[in-house]
Amino acid sequence: MSAQATTYLGFLFLTANSLAAIHRSHGEITETSFVVVSYLCLVLLFVFLRRFEAAPPNSPARGGAKAGVWVATTLLIAVFSWRVSAVTPWPVDAIVWVMAASTVLGGFYTLFLHHPGGD
Q1: Where are the domains of the chain?
Q2: Tens digit of each residue's pLDDT (9 = 90 or more) over 31-69
Q3: Which of 12, 28, 43, 44 could link 72 by a cystine bridge, Cβ 3.0 to 4.6 Å?
Q4: What parts of the sequence cross the membrane (predicted)?
Q5: DSSP assignment letter at 86
Q6: Quick check: 107 and 73 in contact, CB under 8 A?
Q7: At a CB cut-off of 8 Å and minimum separation 6, what does 32 contact?
């Protein structure tokens, strides 16, 4: 199976699971919003990853794609942290948000500030 076919199959699987989750939410707005936002963030993440891979090294397009990857990942982290914190006691909630913040800041440092050998 080619890489392109695998990609399309993965998106088909992601879309089918997202639609099934929306159906199971029975119209509850928070459940539906969580699924839709998560789906859109994942799609954006893959779009920006593809742009990053296709851009020539050290080009402005590559920098823009890196920013897009970071933003999409940050949104996913925030959405999942919000979801987890809704069902955990406050000490665990605090740990979840500290871990989320450290992941976002670590990703920013790694993508934009740390330059070991180029792009």
Answers
A1: 3-113
A2: 999 999 999 999 999 999 999 999 998 899 999 999 999
A3: 44
A4: 36-52, 64-82, 94-113
A5: T
A6: yes
A7: 22, 25
